[in-house]
Structures are given as structure tokens and as C-alpha cells.
Amino acid sequence: MALRRFFVGGNWKMNGNKESLEELITTLNTASLHDETEVVCAAPSIYLDFARSSLDPRIGVAAQNCYKVAKGAFTGEISPSMIKDCGVDWVILGHSERRHVFGEGDELIGQKVAHALESDLGVIACIGEKLEEREAGTTEEVVYAQTQVIAENVKDWGKVVLAYEPVWAIGTGKTASPEQAQEVHEKLRAWLRANVSDDVADSVRIIYGGSVTGANCKELASQGDVDGFLVGGASLKPEFVDIINARA
Ligand code: PGA
């Protein structure tokens, strides 16, 4: 079985200012971080340049979104080539807030995934069911359909991290139990095995997001198919270091 390097993303969302982010960056730069964990911080687009130049090079930077073409008359958008131009190597796409607050659908998310990968960005592709979908027993159906659209737009899975983020767990303090996370991750890996390839199923990191904290990260990280985290609220606090070191 291919070894999957543990991956921890911090999603700062629309939070912070130069002063508070500099403080956070100093904490991360000076912390002892587990060598075997890949760490990526997703900054607001206006702070990408600042984050990239201030963060230690061992910590990656991600944009939180991007558009589906390289340039043009798209007021307010940023492109993968601009993200690359700032020395930034990753982008989060399909985050639940993009889907449900800003109304992005699967088709647009798929186009963005394809273009970001063609532009040589790594993609943290997010999927996850809403509470009513889980309660209706349609979790699998929902996450498989979202994954299918992503898969149709991926040629090289080496640059993709799949983030399973149940919408009901994001920013709610209601974390999925380790068993609930493992169950969905295991099924997603089986889906990749059946629909993409054994190699991709074995090598793609499937990370969990939704109210991950310093207190619950170790138990979640002990699950066989949980290959890391996407962390919102706790990524702005010193406890993010404990989450990075969850497998240490
Ligand atoms: P949260 O956010 O950790 O604050 O729940 C996770 C995310 O949205 O990626």
C-alpha cells in the first residue's frame, strides 16, 4: 500500500488582519512541527503574497478559491496563474461555504478543478453532505456524486487532496465521531478504487474537516483512512500546532 503523507490544511476563511496573522505566522514558524506532516495554510486572497513571504518555506500556502480561466473580464475573481505568480501552490475548491453561501454548483466546481490542475496548482477538493441529507440516509449518494464530478475533471490525482467535510460539522462545534469519519473515508476510497484505479485509491489523501480541535484530532487521526485535516476555526489558534502534530 502506498504511503500517504499526513496532510493538514488551515483554512483561515475571511479572518484576521496583518497584525493577527503575523502573530499566527510567527507561532507556526517557530513551532516544532512533525516532519512527516504536510502543512498548508489557506489565506484570504488579499493576503496570499503576505502569507507566502512571511511563512517558513516548509509551510505551504493555498488560495481559498479561484476562477476557471487564466485571465479576462471577471471583476473580483483571481486566477490560478495569479496564485502561482505569488509563489502559492495550492487552492481549495468546492468548499461548503462556496457551495452553499455563494451558490457554486458541481459543474462550475469541476471546471475550476480542471483549470487549476492544468495550471499546475494542487487542489484541495471539498465534498460533504448537509444535515438533512445525512438524516435522510443519502450521505453516500451525495458525496459520491460530488466526487464523480471532481473525478471527471482530474487527469493527475498526484496533485489532489480530497477533503470530506460534512456541512453539519463545519463551524458548529459538532465534530463527526472518529467512526463516522472513518466510515465515509473508507467508502470514498472504495469508490476511487472502483471508479478510478487501485493506485489512486491507495495514494490519494482523504482528509476530514468540520470542528477539528486540538482535543479531538488525535482520535480522528488514528483512523486508517483519515489522512489529515482541513481546519477552520482552530487553524487561527496556537492549537493548530497540536493538530499538525496529531500523528507525531
Ligand atoms: P471548522 O471549519 O474547523 O471551523 O469547522 C472547517 C472548514 O470549513 O474547512
UniProtKB/TrEMBL annotation:
Known EC number(s)? Answer: 5.3.1.1
Reaction(s) this enzyme catalyzes, per UniProt: dihydroxyacetone phosphate = methylglyoxal + phosphate; D-glyceraldehyde 3-phosphate = dihydroxyacetone phosphate
SUPFAM superfamilies in alphabetical order: Triosephosphate isomerase (TIM)
Annotated Pfam families = TIM
Q: In which pathway does it act?
A: Carbohydrate degradation; glycolysis; D-glyceraldehyde 3-phosphate from glycerone phosphate: step 1/1; Carbohydrate biosynthesis; gluconeogenesis
Listed A to Z, the keywords are: Gluconeogenesis, Glycolysis, Isomerase, Lyase
Which terms does the record give in the GO molecular function aspect?
methylglyoxal synthase activity; triose-phosphate isomerase activity
Q: What GO cellular component term, any one, is given?
A: cytosol
**Record keywords: Isomerase included?**
yes
* GO terms, biological process: gluconeogenesis; glyceraldehyde-3-phosphate biosynthetic process; glycerol catabolic process; glycolytic process
The EC class name is isomerase
**NCBIfam families, per this entry?**
tim
- Record-stated family: Belongs to the triosephosphate isomerase family.
* Annotated HAMAP family: TIM_B (MF_00147_B)
Task: Please give the subunit comment from the record.
Answer: Homodimer.
Q: What does this protein do?
A: It is also responsible for the non-negligible production of methylglyoxal a reactive cytotoxic side-product that modifies and can alter proteins, DNA and lipids. Triosephosphate isomerase is an extremely efficient metabolic enzyme that catalyzes the interconversion between dihydroxyacetone phosphate (DHAP) and D-glyceraldehyde-3-phosphate (G3P) in glycolysis and gluconeogenesis.
State the name under which the record lists this protein: Triosephosphate isomerase
